[in-house]
Amino acid sequence: MSQDNNSTNDQIESYTPPKIWTQDKENGGKFASINSPTAGARQDKALPVGDAPLQLYSLNTPNGVKINILLEELAELDIKEAAYNAYLIDISKGDQFGSGFVAINPNSKIPALVDHSPSEAGEPLAIFESGAILMYLAEKFGKFIPMQQGKARVECLSWLMWQMGSAPFLGGGFGHFYAYAPEPMEYPINRYAMEVKRQLDVLDRHLKDNTYMGGDEESDYNIADMIIWAWYGQLALGKLYDAAEFLQVDEYQHLQRWAKKIAERPAVKRAVDLVLEPIA
Fold it and tell me: GST C-terminal domain location, by residue (predicted)?
C-alpha cells in the first residue's frame, strides 16, 4: 500500500464527527458539483411531451436501463399502448433538478415515467422509483409479472425488492468508492467489495437451479430478471466500474450464463443503447 493511502486511512481513523453536521466544504468526487443536502427544484425547466402514451425521462445508467428493457420487451410484443417517447435527463448537468422533473419525481432521481393514457382521474399519472415503474407497467399490460397470487408472484416480487434493497450497496457503496471518490480508501472499498461479492454469490447459488430468476421456462422471464440484470448482469459482463477483474466476476458461472443469455435478447440489446432525446 502506498504512503498516500496510509495517510488517507490514518485520517479516516482519526476523524471525529461533530455534534451537528454542516456542509462546510465540497465532498469531492465526480458528482460533487451537484450534490446538496436539500431537495427541490433549482431551475425552471419544463419537460417535453411527445405523442406516445408513455413519456420516459431517464438516463442509460443501470437504473434507467431497467425501464428501457421492459419498454422494449413490450415493443417486441407489438403492444401499441406501450409506445413511448424517451428523453435524456443529464444528471451531470443537473437536469434532474429542473422544475418539470421535480414535479414528477420529488426525489430528483432517474428514471421517471408519465402515463398519458386516459385514467379514472382524467389526468396523467407520474411514477417514480424504478421498481414502482416496472410493477406499474407490467401489471398495466399483464406481461412479465405473474398476475395471480401464489408462489410465482411472490418470488418475482421478492427478487424485485431484493434488487431495490441490494443495489445501493453496489452503486452508491462499491461503485462510488471504487470509481468516483476523490481518492481510493481501503476501508470502504473492502467493505463494499465484500458485500457485492456476497450478493453475487446469492445470485449464483439461486441461478444454479434456475434458468431465470423465477424458473426454467421462457414464460418465467419477468421483471425480476430485468431489474437485476441491469445492475448485476452488466457487472458480471464487465460493463460496470471497470471492476470485473477486481471482483473476479468470472467465478460466478451460473450468474455468467444467465447474464449472457439475457444480454442476447433483442429487446435488451436495444435497451442498453437506447437513444434518448435531449431536453431543451
Answer: 152-280
Please give the Cα distance from 264 to 280 (Å, whole number).
34
Q: Where are the domains of the chain?
A: 151-265
In whole angstroms, give the CA distance from residue 5 to residue 11: 10
**How much is the mean pLDDT over the chain?**
93
CA distance 137 to 140: 5
In order of 33, 35, 98, 154, 211, the CA distances from 93 in angstroms are: 9, 12, 10, 39, 40
Please state, in angstroms and rounded to a whole number, the distance separating the CA atoms of residues 163 and 189: 20
CATH of 151-265, one of 3.60.40.10, 1.20.1050.10, 1.10.260.40, 1.20.120.430: 1.20.1050.10
Helix boundaries (H) for the chain: 3-14, 62-76, 99-104, 130-141, 151-168, 186-207, 223-228, 234-236, 244-247, 253-263, 266-272
Residues paired with 57 in a beta bridge: 87, 112
Question: Are 203 and 228 a contacting pair, CB within 8 Å?
Answer: yes
> What are 51-66's pLDDT values in tens digits?
999 999 999 999 999 9
Q: Quote the CA–CA distance of 185 and 233 in Å, as a whole number.
A: 26
pTM of the model: 0.92
Q: List the grid coordinates of 110.
A: 432517474
201-252 confidence digits (pLDDT tens): 999 999 999 999 999 999 999 999 999 999 999 999 999 999 999 999 999 9
CA distance 204 to 210: 10
pLDDT in tens, 119-164: 766 789 999 999 999 999 999 999 999 999 999 999 999 999 999 9
